[in-house]
Amino acid sequence: MNRREFLLSSATAAGALGMGGYGVAASHVKELILQPASFALRGGQITNGMVSLSPDAPPPVLYGQQGKVMRLPVRNTLPDYTAMHWHGLRIPNAMDGVPYLTQMPMGENELFTYEFTPPDAGTYWYHPHCMTMEQMAHGLTGVMVIAEPENPGFDSEQVINLRDFRLDDDGSFLPAFTQRGAARSGTFGNVHTVNWLQNPTYDHAAGGLVRLRVVNTDTTRTYKLHLSASDARIIAWDGHPIEGEVPLPAQETPLMVGPGQRVDIAVAMPTDEGQTFDLIVKLPGQPHRAMVRLRAIGQSQARNLRELRPLPTNPVAKPDLANAELHEFVFGWTPEGGIPDNGFCGTLGYNFWSINRKPWPGDAAQDVGPLATLKMGKTYVLRLRNESPNTHPIHLHGLAFKPIRSNQRKLPPLMTDTMLLLKDEVVEIALVADNPGDWAFHCHVIEHQKTGLTGFIRVI
Ligand code: C2O
Ligand code: CU
Ligand code: CU
């Protein structure tokens, strides 16, 4: 697909979906082409050396439907290796996009056609799983929306892809990682964007019901968020509808959304034309900052959140806790030395982290075994222990899990694929091992993933 065809198909799809943005229905996708891009991330300054699926636009929101097949041919035109991963989707292992584990990395001009049927509706995302630091930090992190068979009653929706970029004063990229950052909480970006824009404003019908799909695709930052809207409710977390009430974020108790995590918020637009509300983020040592503004336009319909039908639950198997088997995982630093981690294709050149005190020894190594082998259909409790003072968003591919207890806090009733582990926290998660294959299991702070905090779990 060339640039014009891409724009045409995305315009049609975005129009049809009432997106007013940069969405494309997966059924319209002829090819997703990884390519170099340029974009004005800050002011009028063009940043070159970005990576996207078009030469001058962010990776599009890909729309699919629950239970409907999606066919996504991905072509790599970069001089580096790559592979595309569909974060959070419970799809066959061979389509998971993890180099050496589920497929060979794709070289320049190679094509790999991903084809799968998403079993779950919700908010997901996609990113390369090879040369991850280079390609993600330079822009290639896109949102994926899997729609329920029926709209539960929203008038519109708004995708909010949160990303920081690390730029110099002239708009050029600063190094995406630092040894100092990799050994601590990661290296943070300094230009904060939503859908690659700084402080965008989006218009939605006055009084209408909007579904916000907030996605943290950053390589490092855990966003602390709150909303200045008066009528809003969290309806889903990491794709899956929540089973109970989760308190709405407020200024004093912001919502922590770690790298890889998503939160869906239902919100009623203000009823007067021109009225606004903001999604606000608290950055360390800075005043609260509005990341994105929603503005009411047109005649008010004054709808109420109670008019929404509950989201249908996704078909995730319920853990049988009485017959569960326990596995323990310790996340922490690694002893000095060893081979630098080759964390699934691409290395940073050093090792700081480990799972069960062993750093990931490199995907090309012949003898790398799974961290655990789980039996199909059985329930497992995984005890995740953070031995370090840094937070780690621990992500498991291919399976959804239920956090059941923490030694530090009351956990909300969720199903998820990415668990944010706080300093010294121990969290137990429960799952039914019902998707066979080798599933990557790693921290989603990419500098941690790439310096040892990676492994995989086998389901047979
Ligand atoms: Cu979002 Cu292993 O990835
Ligand atoms: Cu993933
Ligand atoms: Cu980490």
TrEMBL record:
What the entry lists under InterPro entries is as follows: Cu-oxidase-like_N, Cu-oxidase_C, Cu-oxidase_fam, Cu_oxidase_Cu_BS, Cupredoxin
What enzyme class is recorded for this protein? oxidoreductase
Superkingdom assignment: Bacteria
Q: Which GO terms describe its molecular function?
A: copper ion binding; oxidoreductase activity
Has the keyword Ribonucleoprotein been applied to this entry? no
Entries under Pfam families matching the protein: Cu-oxidase_2 (PF07731), Cu-oxidase_3 (PF07732)
Every Plastocyanin-like domain range: 52-150, 367-455
Q: Does the keyword Oxidoreductase apply?
A: yes
Instruction: Give the EC number.
Output: 1.-.-.-
Annotated keywords? Metal-binding, Oxidoreductase
Which GO cellular component terms, listed alphabetically, does the Swiss-Prot or TrEMBL entry include? outer membrane-bounded periplasmic space
Please report the name of this protein according to its UniProt entry: Multicopper oxidase mco
